[in-house]
Specification:
The protein is built from 15 helices and five strands. The chain has about 325 residues and is mostly helical. The protein folds into two domains: about 1-180 and about 290-315, HUPs (Rossmann fold), CATH 3.40.50.620; about 200-275, Tyrosyl-Transfer RNA Synthetase. Helix 11 (about 230-235) packs parallel to helix 13. Bound molecules: adenosine-5'-diphosphate and tryptophan.
Length: about 325
């Protein structure tokens, strides 16, 4: 079984990325052959600063490894180290219906938020389909916001198979129910473009400050509170034990505890949860060549698979 996912190096990783995509992806690396990459071609649709793109890419690799990606099991590589994906993206674009791309929520949202509607932003899902199909992927672990992109990938794979014969497998999204949309400190989906993130590797003061700024209603301390509508409780439930979740749930319902106290409990738990990852990250940072070595080996493995699939595609379409 081949598992594949990508993450854009368009900013610093937050706990929405971690619980929505990275933790499930790391868990899956034991179940098959995993390919995880840094989507730098995709990030170019929003990021036009070369030094930042390069630096973020390296940081995403370091942070992913620190969070538990095992390079002996999973290949970790830069998307642009396998330039064949752009060749496949071109071929897919020749069969991709414009109407299908026009329906993409992600494109519409980005343009609505003021991003320039470039051709690259419009065909973003075609490149993503190429990423997935070029590695014969079976399973794609992602957050819910990426579901439509995987449906588009399947549509393009079907269209290619109908037009040129059976070339591609149809990939399945793997969306982890409990963490499909992690809320940010304002209660909306956590996203770097909304400025509502809690970063995984922020320093202690910064992480505390973000947690303490979670928006709540104005119930007084004595009042019973509704855990199901609380961002604090939702975030806590992502990683606390069953018993701890039950204790917090009960304290919400009973009343007598203020939101400030719940936030302190959430912060303490969050800080502890990421402690081993901060340690691992410090070790990785101490050896600057380590990450480059991992990315080079990852790119080699990815190239071998991509080249085989591309040979089949070129043959099938007549190139
Ligand atoms: P952002 O929205 O901050 O720009 P990305 O689009 O780079 O994040 O997302 C990278 C991965 O993390 C994707 O698989 C995405 O589904 C997942 N992800 C991002 N934010 C969340 C969230 N708030 N909840 C669940 N998954 C998320
Ligand atoms: N579009 C994804 C995101 O913003 C990143 C991505 C690019 C991806 N190519 C992919 C994810 C292939 C899964 C598979 O998060």
């Amino acid at each position: 079984m081949r598992i594949l996912s990508g993450i854009q190096p368009s900013g610093i990783l937050h706990i929405g990325n971690y619980f929505g995509m990275m933790r499930p992806a790391i868990a899956l690396q034991a179940e098959g052959e995993a390919f995880y990459f840094i989507a730098d071609y995709h990030a170019l649709t929003s990021l036009k600063d070369p030094a930042t793109l390069r630096e973020n890419g390296r940081r995403v690799a370091i942070d992913f490894l620190a969070c538990g990606l095992d390079p002996e099991r999973a290949a970790l590589f830069r998307q642009s180290d396998v330039p064949q994906v752009t060749e496949l993206a071109w071929i897919l674009s020749t069969i991709a219906p414009i109407g299908l791309l026009e329906r993409a929520h992600s494109y519409k949202d980005k343009v609505a938020r003021g991003m320039t509607a470039s051709a690259g932003l419009f065909t973003y899902p075609v490149l993503m389909a190429a990423d997935i199909l070029i590695y014969n992927s079976d399973i794609v672990p992602v957050g819910k916001d990426q579901k439509q992109h995987i449906e588009i990938t399947r549509d393009l794979a079907v269209k290619m198979n109908e037009t040129f014969g059976e070339i591609f497998k149809l990939p399945e999204p793997r969306i982890h129910g409990a963490t499909e949309t992690v809320p940010g400190i304002d209660g909306q989906k956590m996203s770097k473009s909304y400025g509502n993130t809690i970063d995984i590797f922020g320093d202690e003061k910064e992480m505390r400050k973000r947690v303490m700024s979670i928006v709540t209603d104005s119930s007084p301390i004595e009042a019973p509170k509704d855990p199901d509508n609380s961002t604090i409780f939702q975030l806590y439930s992502l990683f606390a034990t069953k018993e701890e979740i039950a204790v917090m749930c009960e304290a919400f319902r009973r009343g007598g505890t203020g939101y400030g106290d719940f936030k302190k409990q959430l912060f303490a738990k969050l800080w502890d949860y990421f402690e081993p990852m901060r340690k691992r990250r410090a070790e990785i940072l101490a050896d600057p060549r380590y990450v480059e070595g991992v990315l080079e080996r990852g790119a080699q493995r990815a190239n071998e698979v991509a080249e085989k699939v591309m040979a089949r595609v070129r043959e099938a379409v007549g190139l």
